[in-house]
Structure formats: structure tokens, C-alpha cells
Design a protein that fits this description.
globular; alpha+beta; 6-stranded mixed sheet
Length: 154
């Protein structure tokens, strides 16, 4: 689907560039395959992010989950905002909303996220949103990833 058609469906203005980092055709295909395999998981997959930019609803990124909570009550979030819309609080709002929505489900005990270790702004955002660094892992495509967790507080 073209970005113009997507924006028409969302009732939003098209961004200057699309897609955001980590939301390419391969990512969208992965989400579609997960949805087709498990339609009940729809709410635990991806969302598009529309924000008010100078009074105009504008497509600015994507965010969501990598699937429903697992048997241990863990769900992983992800988000990506187009560079032109960084440092406006949009990613913070997206992360906070994803976390709140996840913890509203009684099955969820922990929310995890990972980001390239070199993405200082993303790491700071996760920490600002209450996540704690718990380690790192090597990814063949993205290099070293910093692993974060946020636990449900009573």
C-alpha cells in the first residue's frame, strides 16, 4: 500500500519521508504473517502513529508489540518515529501508551524493549519512561542491542 493510500485510510497528512527506520516492507510483511496466523493477536501487533503537527493530523511513525504476552507475562514493544518529528515528545507518548495498554492486561508482568546500543536518544527515552537496562545481545543485522525491561509496580 502506498503511503498516500495509507494516509487517506488514516485521515492523516503524508509525512515528508516514509517509512520510518525499522518499519520497512519486511517488517510490514512480518506483521501481516503474524496476523494471518493468529487473528486474535491483532491488538498485540503494530499500529501507525498519527500526531498533531501544526494543527494537522500527520502520519509520523509506527509502534506496537511483537505479539501477545508470552506464558511468563512478558510482552515486547517497538516504536519508530520519522526523523523530522524527533524531539517533540511523540515517541515518549507512544512508549507510555504502549506500556499502559500492556499493563492494563492482567497477564502482563513485564514489558521489554531493545534498541541499538548506539541509539543514545532511544536509550534515554526508555529510561525516562521507567525502563531499566538489563543487558545486551548481538544481532546479526543491527549489531549490539541494549535490552530494557519495565516491571509492573503494585
Amino acid at each position: 500500500m502506498s503511503v498516500e493510500r495509507l494516509c487517506a485510510e488514516l485521515g492523516a497528512a503524508a509525512p515528508a519521508s516514509w517509512p520510518p527506520l525499522y518499519n520497512d516492507e519486511g517488517t510490514r510483511t512480518w506483521f501481516l504473517q503474524k496476523l494471518e496466523a493468529e487473528p486474535a493477536a491483532a491488538g498485540w501487533l503494530g499500529y501507525y502513529v498519527v500526531a498533531d503537527i501544526e494543527g494537522v493530523p500527520t502520519l509520523v511513525g509506527a509502534g506496537g508489540y511483537k505479539g501477545p504476552p508470552n506464558g511468563d507475562g512478558i510482552v515486547e514493544i517497538g516504536y519508530s518515529i520519522i526523523d523530522a518529528y524527533h524531539r517533540r515528545g511523540i515517541a515518549t507518548a507512544v512508549v507510555n501508551e504502549l506500556v499502559a495498554r500492556a499493563f492494563a492486561d492482567a497477564r502482563v508482568k513485564r514489558v521489554t524493549a531493545e534498541t541499538p546500543a548506539t541509539f543514545t536518544a532511544s536509550r534515554g527515552l526508555l529510561e525516562k519512561c521507567g525502563f531499566t537496562l538489563i543487558g545486551a545481545r548481538a544481532d546479526p543485522d543491527d549489531g549490539e542491542l541494549a535490552l530494557y525491561v519495565r516491571t509492573l509496580t503494585p
